[in-house]
Amino acid sequence: MQVRIVNAFVDDERGGNPAGVVLQADALSAAQKQAIAAQVGLSETAFVSSSQSAAFKLEFFTPTRQIAHCGHATVATFSLLRQLGLVGEGWSSKETIDGNRDILLQGDMAFMEQCQPQYLDLRSEPEALAEVLAALGITPEQLLPGLWPTRVNTGASFVIVPLRNEAQVAAIVPDQAELARFSEQFELIGFYVFSQQTRQPGRDAGARMFAPRYGIDEESATGMAAGPLACFLHDYLGVTGPRLLIEQGYLMQPPSASVITVDLQLAEGRIERLLAGGKAQVISELTLEL
Fold this sequence. Notes:
Elements: E1 2-8, E2 17-22, H1 30-40, E3 45-49, E4 56-61, E5 66-67, H2 71-83, E6 90-96, E7 99-106, E8 109-114, E9 118-121, H3 126-136, E10 150-153, E11 157-162, H4 166-170, H5 176-186, E12 190-195, E13 205-211, E14 216-219, H6 223-237, E15 243-248, E16 258-267, E17 270-278, E18 280-287
Parallel strand pairs: 2-3, 4-6, 11-12, 13-15
Antiparallel strand pairs: 1-2, 1-18, 3-4, 4-5, 6-7, 7-8, 8-17, 9-10, 10-11, 12-13, 13-14, 15-16, 16-17
Helix pairs in contact: 3-5
């Protein structure tokens, strides 16, 4: 079984988040896909099959379980398909276990559709708010004034945590077991902690992402989290779009600099949907035996 390793959301041809991509996966069972993902050992591996309702069927597996969507593995997959001449410029689509999503191939970038945001301010759940702050090791005084951790869903749920500065984001040493327990209770993918300080000018936020429920202590680029953060920046902080740039991976050890581009589609100032994407590079190939 051939697995290509593709770095998605590379920043100026460096860094990014590696995903496994397996083409022509129609004959593989779910158990085989899970076994392959565990062998690959990356945060997500995408399996590409034929589809009756979209251009391709994509299934995503972490080392421990299947998930409905994965931003960086989607960008990795469609960038690879583009490089192999299996998809052209313009609109395409993917079928997932959670419905179909549009994909846009634009130049050397691939974008995936996300849905209109839904918000839950955790102040409405005081016990949950206290648990999140404790698990992240932060205090209310470290939060951006007037803002609180908020669950945001644009197709998958993340808790967005706004901190005052990059130093506070960098200093976080989370209680992964508590984050995993909380994620299970509230059906979360993970936690996206950010500040508005960035390493490169012209960008809108720098973030870290923790998803221990899915076996990911920290990830270098998360398209499904950057979408909710871009919506939060627009709706809660008044950051004007329609294109926002999110940095991630700079604060990991070791660093893996990444940048995620989010295009917001607005109607009368309200977000109707969004496209999150970036660039990707094939870095290696693996051959595994089932």
